[in-house]
Design brief:
11 helices, globular, 530 residues, alpha+beta, 19 strands, Sulfite Oxidase, Chain A, domain 2, 3 domains, five-stranded mixed beta sheet, five-stranded antiparallel beta sheet, binds molybdenum atom, Immunoglobulin-like, 22% strand, binds ligand MTE
């Protein structure tokens, strides 16, 4: 083979390296967009940007030509442009390094700009295009380096040793260099295709369920919770009585949020029951919805931690749902299962007790459950940690026994049964944040779901315990806010807080770690006063 035709062949392979680098860029960005920032897909953001900037006559021409396929035509055109630009960046990187990498960085910067100027961007939206650029450039640079090594050993130029990174004279055989190039090309190319297509498919499923969710109109509740006046104290830095959905803590084992169409959703109630029952979403709504205010807590919440939130739920009592199937005697547990395979073990009695508001929830703070919080149906049980009760994306309730069945977290070091240990938290002043001397509020929240908080006491610098002012409780399942006005003097001070529940029990002082059944201990916080 002549050197000339061989050189042409390497130019073609470098174009392929560029296409793979571009593909890796897009696939990485799609993956991180799915995980961290849904609206941060470079190809869609650039597409949206193009739609915004093209002149009206051109848009009309596109609609006239492609009709309802105008968006698909745009994306196809964009895809072709990306393909050609990537191929060129590969050739550049091969012939004039690092020009190809520079071109890819510029493309990455432009798509980042397109994403960040879209409406409704989230704080992490820059991550997908930036990480995509980094990984894409890395693959492009490596591929072109290996391609040069192969060319050098094939063509036999003088500086082959230098450019392959091998010592002079120690030239690798051509076959080895060629294989190194193709192995990387195949691995990177296949990963880009698999990851990119999977991530885009899941993103589209999320978007479609998101639109179903926003179009959903739930019936109004039959009964509403009365929120008494004085239920919410007006103190800057204090947690609001109801935690907004976007601020509500989130714990799940699923890598991506499950996407369920309520039309096809079914709840199966089986196991030790008189009859197996299957309910549709409409069946749940037809039972009649009621409002419930319940504070949710995670077993992983450390003393003073953030894994606790309060919401107004709309739902139906679990006891009524279970009654449709008729739990049999001998059963003592309900194993709830999520579409993602997650399971929780809840004592049957906690779900059938007349005095406990264990519910299937379909709405959270005035809107259908957010996808992240279990759309379309989840469980909420007052007084039990989330991992043994609050199954999201619920699909099955199996009536069974603790002896026969085990939930997701049980073999992983957590108790099969876990009532919430009642607790109290300081929200303001924030730990370590300096405040000005003078009268300041010390405030926070305290919760004892299903029992209620009787009082909250505060001690400053190991002084006497003084009762804090409490907000008017909504019910015994929600947290209360507490407040104490304090004349702050310059220096460093310690504030300790503890709660007493309506049974007259004192919050446990002794520290316990979160495993196996939840943390305990009084929060002691530090205040710096200037
Ligand atoms: N399907 C599913 N449901 C789940 C979990 C999960 O990982 N998967 N985590 C549980 C845990 S540990 C808690 S504390 C609550 C948290 O609910 P949230 O994410 O809506 O705050 O959900 C529970 N339900
Ligand atoms: Mo949890």
């Amino acid at each position: 083979m002549t050197q000339r035709s061989s050189a042409k062949r390497f130019i073609l392979w470098s174009a392929l390296a560029g296409v793979i680098g571009g593909g890796v860029f897009l696939a990485t960005a799609e993956l991180f967009a799915l995980l961290f920032a849904r609206a941060a897909s470079p190809i869609l953001a650039v597409g949206g940007f193009v739609i915004d900037i093209v002149p009206q006559p051109f848009k009309e021409f596109a609609i006239a030509t492609f009709g309802e396929y105008d968006k698909i035509a745009l994306l196809a055109g964009l895809g072709l442009a990306v393909f050609i630009a990537s191929a060129i960046s590969g050739i550049l990187q091969f012939v004039r390094p690092p020009l190809g990498a520079v071109a890819l960085v510029i493309a990455g910067a432009l798509s980042t700009a397109a994403i960040l100027t879209r409406a409704g961007v989230t704080p992490l939206a820059f991550l997908p295009p930036v990480l995509g650029t980094v990984v894409g450039v890395l693959v492009l640079v490596l591929l072109c380096r290996r391609l040069r090594a192969w060319r050098d050993s094939a063509v036999g130029t003088a500086n082959a040793g230098a450019s392959t990174g091998h010592a002079d004279g120690e030239r690798t055989p051509t076959g080895v260099d060629r294989r190194r190039f193709f192995v990387l090309a195949a691995v990177a190319g296949a990963s880009a295709i698999i990851v990119g297509i999977t991530a885009r498919t899941v993103s589209m499923a999320v978007a479609s369920v998101e639109s179903i969710r926003s179009a959903l109109r739930l019936p109004s509740p039959r009964s509403r919770v009365t929120v008494p006046s004085g239920a919410e104290l007006d103190v800057p830095g204090l947690s609001p009585l109801f935690t907004p959905n976007e601020d509500f803590y989130r714990v799940d084992t699923a890598l991506t949020v499950p996407t369920i169409d309520p039309e096809t959703w079914r709840l199966v109630i089986d196991g030790m029951v008189d009859q197996r029952v299957e309910l549709s979403f409409q069946d749940i709504l037809d039972m009649g919805l009621d409002e419930y205010a319940i504070t949710l807590t995670c077993v992983s919440n450390e003393v003073g931690g953030e894994l606790v939130g309060n919401a107004m739920w709309l739902g139906v009592p679990l006891r009524d749902v279970l009654a449709k199937a008729g739990p049999q005697s001998g059963a003592d547990m309900v194993l709830s299962r999520s579409v993602d395979g997650y399971t929780a073990s809840t004592p049957l009695s906690a779900l059938t007790d007349d005095g406990l508001d264990a519910i299937l929830a379909v709405a959270m703070n005035g809107e259908p459950l957010p996808l992240e919080h279990g759309f379309p149906v989840r469980m909420v049980v007052p007084g039990l940690y989330g991992y043994v009760s609050a199954t999201k994306w619920l699909t099955e309730l199996k009536v069974t026994t603790f002896a026969d069945d085990e939930a997701y977290w049980t073999p992983r070091g957590y108790s099969a049964e876990a009532p919430i240990k009642f607790s109290s938290r300081v929200d303001t002043p924030k730990l370590g944040a300096a405040v000005e001397a003078g009268r300041i509020p010390i405030a926070g929240v305290a919760w004892a779901q299903s029992v209620g908080i009787e009082s909250v006491e505060v001690s400053i610098d190991n002084g006497d315990w003084v009762a804090a002012t409490l907000s008017a409780p909504v019910n015994e399942d929600t947290w209360v806010q507490w407040l104490m006005e304090w004349d702050a003097t310059p220096g460093t001070h310690y504030v300790a807080v503890r709660a007493i529940n309506k049974n007259g029990d004192m919050q446990v002082e002794e520290r316990a770690p979160i495993a196996p059944d939840g943390s305990s201990g009084w929060q002691r916080s530090l205040i710096r006063v200037n």
